[in-house]
Amino acid sequence: MIIKSKWIRMYKVLSMFMVFFIQIYWYKITKKPETEWEKLWANIGKRFSQTLFELEGLLIKVGQIISSRADLLPQPLIREIEDLTDKVPPSDWNDIQEILDKEWGSSHKELLISVEKEAIASASIGEVYKGVLQDGSKVAIKVQRPHIDSIVQTDFRTLGIAIWFANYFLPIPKGFINLKVLLTELKQVIERELDFTKEKETLLYFQDRFKDSDIVLIPHVYAELCTSKVLVMEWVDGIKINDFSAINQLDVTRKELAQRLIKVFLPQWLEPGIFHADPHPGNILVSEKGHIILLDFGMAGEISKNDSLSFQRLIESFLAKNYSAAVECLSRLGFLLPEADTKMIERLLAEWMTFQPAQMNEVDLIAFKRELNDMIQALPVQVPTRFVFLGRSFVTIEGIVTHLVPEEDILDIGKPVFMEWSLSQGNKWSFAWQWIQSQPLFKIFHSVKEFLNAPEKLEHLKETEQRRQFQFWVYENHKKQLFQLTLFALTGIGAGIYLANTIMLKLSIVLSAFSVVGYSIISYKLKKWMKYMHKIR
Fold first, then answer.
1. What is the largest CA-CA distance in the chain?
2. What range(s) does the Protein kinase domain occupy (predicted)?
């Protein structure tokens, strides 16, 4: 049963974070060995996971997003929360019925012949029920969970307090990851998901996008019955994409299905516009004829034109085995930190791309994944905040494809799909140029040119990083000084009141006003600067 009291929710979350902060600082002060740190992070992950399951609501989604940040967070913590699922007990039917009647302005019995009172699916934001309209059409009725809007607001307020505390009292992670920016992005996505009108618009967008496709089915939406809390769609029967026993009975092969899946999602990742940000197996069905059926468009992201072009060049570079160009694209997109050794990254990419799927049979997959995550965390790379949901979409589809055809190399499956898409976009000469650049003769010329430009480039990077570090610590030191001055002034106010000393009281009030205003100005400047740094990165 979801805990609705905002004070209980805030207490549970903030007390949990406070315990985490104290434990981390104690381990840091006492200089605990690496093995003890691993145990601590694992215990933190367990308690974090248990608290999220207990509180449900928005916090489940927060855990899912956090679990995707293996580039920033300790692996023992990630391992404990990576299996978080957005499945929660359904609400009482009477509460759902009340929402339907209120949203439709009349009894739901006037619009529906029947409705199953047991939820077909139940997640943190909404629940889905199967019904039949008066004209006999079978529909899926998605209803917002009761009181979820107030619960979400409470959770965001609580997370805001925790992040404020973390920004001031915890070490900044590598790459100056901006927790406030991450929270803002999460808030935008969740608020969009809370408004079913937005989901209806996204659903209509995808219907129009795939209207000429013969491999995709998007449910019809009954717009006249949709409100901000109720979404009515065509009921579509299908097989879950991970139900392999049923999939094997279809006329299409699993490899064909994998290629169709890539064909559906590749344009979403590479073309400007909206993409499906939550394509887990429960949201992807397969019809008896092998059509890909997409469901649940509540969580969607958007990719800009500049980023889409960079991603296209990145994939072209991988397919042409032009790893120097791939590293350049990664740097342009902001995945590489300024101190990254591009030659080392280039060599790692080349080694990674030569790994054969057949070798996976001889490898402990869990150990391999942990080793890969450890390597990523040790490298000067990070996932820019604006790509968190895009990365989530890509990794989920990659996992589905890998399970569909474990014996195949995902690049071998995706290459013909990408080439077909690329040619349809008129990019054949771009790909040819990438291939020419990857040839030995061109590489020698490129290496000589790069060698000659290396000193100037290194000096520029060094100077940029030094300015960046200096500017950051200037702002941070000013903030700390003003924060300490505020505490001193508040102490002075208390002392002035206690001693009935008017002069001390007035001076302390003026000092506190000065420090608060100064602190606000510096915080605003730092916020603007952090946003600027994320943009140019």
1. 89
2. 114-474
The beta-carbon contacts of 247-255 under 8 Å, at least 24 apart in sequence, are: 247/286, 247/404, 250/286, 250/288, 250/290, 251/289, 251/290, 252/290, 254/404, 254/405, 255/404, 255/405, 255/408, 255/413
Q: What is the pTM of this model?
A: 0.66
Neighbours of 320 (CB within 10 A): 19
| Angle of the 34-55 helix axis to the 58-67 helix axis, nearest 10 | 150
| Helical (H) or strand (E) element with 369 | helix 365-378
Classify residue 168 as exposed, middle or buried by CB count within 10 Å of its CB (0-12, 13-18, 19+). Answer: exposed
279-309 pLDDT, tens per residue?
888 889 999 899 999 998 988 888 888 888 8
CA gap 131, 253 in Å, rounded: 33
Q: Are 357 and 407 in contact (CB under 8 A)?
A: yes
Helix (H, G, I), strand (E, B) or coil at 170: coil
Q: What is the Cα–Cα distance from 483 to 490, expressed in whole angstroms?
A: 11
442 token code pair: 């061109």
The residues that bridge with 142 in the sheet, in sequence order, are 128, 231
